[in-house]
Amino acid sequence: MGVEGKDKQKALEAGAQVVSGQLGRTVQRLRKAYNLSLSDLSEQSGVAKSIISQIERNETNPTLSTIWRLSQALDVSIERVLQGAEDEPFVEKSSRGDTPILVSEDGKCKLAITGWIKTVEWLQWYDFTAAPGGVLASDPHQRGSVECLSVISGELEVEVAGVIETAVAGETLRYRCDRPHIIRNRSGKPAHATMVCILKAAVME
């Protein structure tokens, strides 16, 4: 192998090390985001706890099979796992015109999607407004999902499986949203809230 070949080999090894480091950071970030311990992820993926620990510390180059098992356990694509997050700080701005708006069937409730597209698989958040009498009825999300509704102004009512609770400005309601759930504004004034939906929360039995 000539000098050119050695240089190419070094470049390939350096590139592999960078990818491995990104993989480890991504696996650790997703594991912690889903509130999984190393033992939990090991049990769900079938990958040894020691191997996962080595991957997160960038001490091993896992096989494609191992990466696939981890991606299945973390409920993301292999591409997502292999995609390293940038460590450099950044500021990203979205204009009002770039913010998608969802409207309830009665036309009285609006959800502005303010969440980040890169977290949509496990975390979503919205700016929620409801005119007097507004009702937002939602189908169940995936099992284990939890929704948090923080009221900024006005008053909102949440109903889940026949249980009803009301919150006013400064109060937050947290509830399982893996079953049908309804948000209502029974007051005579508009209501405003922030809604956060955690799609990969710990399952509550």
If you had to describe this structure to a student in words, what would you say it looks like?
The protein is α+β, with helices and mostly antiparallel strands. It folds into 2 domains: 3-82, lambda repressor-like DNA-binding domains (434 Repressor (Amino-terminal Domain), Orthogonal Bundle), CATH 1.10.260.40; 96-198, Jelly Rolls, CATH 2.60.120.10. Helices cover 30% and strands 28% of the residues. It has helices at 3-33, 38-45, 49-56, 64-73, 78-82, and strands spanning 101-103, 109-113, 123-130, 135-138, 146-153, 155-160, 163-168, 172-176, 181-184, 191-198. The strands form 2 sheets. Strands 1-2-3-10-5-8 form a 6-stranded antiparallel sheet, with no helix packed on it. A 4-stranded antiparallel sheet has the order 4-9-6-7, with no helix packed on it. A hairpin with a 2-residue loop joins strand 6 and strand 7 (163-168). It is elongated, with a radius of gyration of 22 Å. The N and C termini lie far apart (61 Å).
